[in-house]
Amino acid sequence: MKTTAVEPTAFAGTLILTVDLGYDPGDLVAVILAARSVDHLVVVTSDEVGGLRAELARRMLDLLGRGDVEVIAGVDLGGKRRFLPDPGQQIPVYIRPSFEEHTERGDKLVSRLVDLVVAAAHPVQWVGCGPMSELSLVLTAAPDLAEKIPVTQMAGWLDEYRRPDRAEHNLATDMLAGGIALRMLPTARLVLADHTENDAIRVTEDWDLVRALDADHAPVWARLLAAHFHRWVTRWYDGSWMGAPLTLSAALGYPFVAFTETGVRIEDDARLFRESRGRPMRVSQTVHYGAFVKWLHETVISW
């Protein structure tokens, strides 16, 4: 496929990236792309697993020379099956917190995120590549921020999904949080599973990108990503869909994803349906997959 060169964007704001890395490698790719593209970056781990996602984010960012990026451990939903540990790494047993402990943890998380938004010297954008638990807490505690923070979220499906009987993964993992956030946000942009699960962005072991990550001369951070990719294809699927990087690219201002406004009805289980009199939302309509893949490849392996 012939593609033209992609000009870099000048992203000058503060970007808060929520991501459930340590499972599908695409989320780790999103962290790498953000670290290489954004000066003022904060990473929040969603669907946290005993702090292991935050530890992995910190490790990757340090390897990339981004020790300045703050990593905040997000809400632990007890989903340890959604984390692929390193060899010999132990996943802590999940102990459901008491109501008081849950409230205290949420208050601390919200306080830190609200402080970041209020104190930021640059406009703030929120990019969600995992469940919407943290965003829901922030909006519930400070509803005025719903109109101040542009949100680009990987969430939902409208026309085609591998599981038509349930909501898209990020919404299904915390249905209550997803329903709250989507109902509170006036102008959220959704990158739908209709587009993030397209085979055009399913990275498999025969991609040049993977071969570059496996090369002997590849930097340590690239070999770490390669190891996570190979564990993923061994345990789960034969490829990794780059939905999180695609969502990030939209927030950064790249023209790969085109959005349209449509009426959406939000069900109790967080499934979304087109409805002319539903809540107006901006959702992904088309994707220029060739240009996106070119940008992804060139940005990740530019060492």
Short description, anyone?
The chain is of the alpha/beta class. The chain has helices at residues 25-37, 52-63, 99-119, 133-141, 169-173, 175-184, 193-196, 208-214, 220-235, 243-251, 289-300, and strands at residues 14-19, 40-45, 70-73, 124-129, 151-154, 189-191, 202-203, 240-241, 257-266, 272-274, 279-287. Helix 1 runs parallel beside helix 10 (243-251) and helix 4 (133-141) packs across helix 6 (175-184).
Report on the architecture of this protein.
This protein is α/β, with parallel strands linked by helices. The chain is built from 11 helices and 11 strands. The strands form 2 sheets. It has a 9-stranded mixed sheet. The chain has a two-stranded antiparallel sheet with strand order 7-8. α4 crosses α6 and α8 crosses α9.
Blueprint (SSEs and pairs):
Layout: E1 14-19, H1 25-37, E2 40-45, H2 52-63, E3 70-73, H3 99-119, E4 124-129, H4 133-141, E5 151-154, H5 169-173, H6 175-184, E6 189-191, H7 193-196, E7 202-203, H8 208-214, H9 220-235, E8 240-241, H10 243-251, E9 257-266, E10 272-274, E11 279-287, H11 289-300
Parallel strand pairs: 1-2, 1-4, 2-3, 4-5, 5-6, 6-11
Antiparallel strand pairs: 7-8, 9-10, 9-11
Helix pairs in contact: 1-10, 3-4, 4-6, 8-9
